[in-house]
Design a protein that fits this description.
Length: about 400
């Protein structure tokens, strides 16, 4: 082999090794370029839209909540005190009646006849008594003169005494007949509301078995409710100072809750439920409360002065406990641990971890994390978008 052959082979080998090295270098440069580009900062995320509210400082009542049942102050079943035929009804079912209002009339004619008979008996026996008194006076004079025997005198005196008793009985019979005649008109014993009419004109009313009407007194009215026995000592202590305030409300109620006062604590705890029954009294001038109705009861025990309060939905629960997202001046959020207190009407007392006038997130928590940027949106806009989403098919 000549020298020119070896030179040609050397050139080919050098070219074959150089080409793969160029490919490897290109790959390495591409990787470095990709790595360098991945280390470039990513563009900033858009702010998270949230609803917010301010923590406020105010006095908050300490309340015990319960379910109560409205009951009439008093209930009276109207019954007749005389037997007879029902002649008239003077009220409408469900209407309010006043004390002394005429409700029913029993046929008074038999009762009037009994009164006339009693008066006639008194007239007859009174005449006999007058004659017996004259006879006794005569017998006494004769007895004093020894002209009649002791036996005749005693007989005359006994006759006088008998007729005296008879006349007294006749007078009592007249009083009873007058009373029965008065009972023929059945009147309301109290202010109240008439229930269903249980008897009708023409019925024979048997005294005192037949119930004729139920009256409920609703001005004022009571609400019965029960609370856990753990509150008994505090309720008893506060009651000694002044009657406790009670507010009641119910579904679809118009106007503010009705206010009353706690008037009764049961003398024993229910061993089955561990609850103790209380009773509150309400004026109920507008008839908002009705016997048998179920209501939500709020018994106020005391008042917290200067408590920090936020909407209840602002407080979230995480692995480390309860927290709120606080919006900082730069529109970023801070995750702040808090300690929850009592809740009252969709507001919750924060015992620690928050100051008055700080802004907390009330909606939009799921997309938040510490130092996230936020955009405060209005509650009206959020409500409009929600309604629009619901209206879409």
């Amino acid at each position: 082999m000549n020298e020119s052959y070896f030179n040609e082979m050397k050139k080919r080998i050098s070219a074959g090794l150089f080409a793969p090295m160029i490919v490897i270098a290109a790959v390495l440069l591409a990787g470095c370029s990709k790595s360098t580009s991945s280390n470039q900062p990513a563009p900033g995320r858009p702010p998270v839209p949230v609803l917010v509210a301010q923590a406020v400082k105010k006095n908050v009542p300490v309340q015990v909540l319960a379910i109560g049942n409205v009951t009439a102050l008093s209930k009276v079943t109207i019954r007749s005190q005389v037997t007879g035929q029902l002649k008239e009804v003077h009220f409408r079912e469900g209407e309010e009646v006043k004390k002394g209002d005429l409700l029913f009339t029993i046929d008074p004619r038999p009762l009037q006849a009994a009164l006339d008979s009693a008066r006639a008996n008194l007239a007859r026996d009174g005449a006999q008594l007058g004659n017996a008194r004259i006879q006794f006076d005569r017998e006494r004079k004769l007895f004093d003169q020894k002209l009649v025997s002791q036996d005749e005198f005693d007989t005359s005196k006994a006759s006088l005494d008998t007729l005296t008793g008879t006349v007294a009985a006749d007078q009592a019979a007249i009083t009873n007949a007058l009373l029965n005649l008065e009972y023929a008109e059945i009147r309301s014993p109290m202010d109240g509301v008439a229930g269903s009419q249980l008897v009708f004109v023409g019925n024979i009313i048997k005294s005192p078995d037949d119930a004729m009407l139920m009256l409920n007194q609703v001005h004022p009215i009571y609400v019965l409710f029960s609370v856990p026995e753990q509150y008994y000592s505090e309720i008893r202590a506060e009651t000694r100072k002044a009657p406790l305030k009670v507010a009641v409300s119910f579904q679809n109620m118009t106007g503010p809750p009705r206010l009353g006062e706690q008037t009764f604590i049961d003398n024993a705890v229910d061993a089955t439920t561990g609850m103790i029954q209380l009773k509150a009294r309400f004026a109920n001038e507008d008839n908002a409360l009705w016997p048998g109705q179920f209501v939500q009861v709020a018994l106020t025990l005391s008042e917290l002065s200067g408590a920090i309060v936020v909407p209840s939905q602002a407080i979230q629960v995480g692995q480390d406990g309860e927290y709120v997202f606080v919006v900082k001046p730069d529109q970023t959020v801070e995750m702040r641990p808090v300690k929850r207190g009592d809740t009252l009407q969709e507001e919750t007392v924060v015992l620690s971890g928050l100051q008055a006038d700080e802004t907390v997130v009330t909606d939009g928590h799921l997309r938040l994390k510490p130092d996230a940027k936020v955009m405060v949106k209005s509650a009206q806009a959020d409500s409009a978008s929600t309604n629009a989403a619901k209206s879409r098919p």
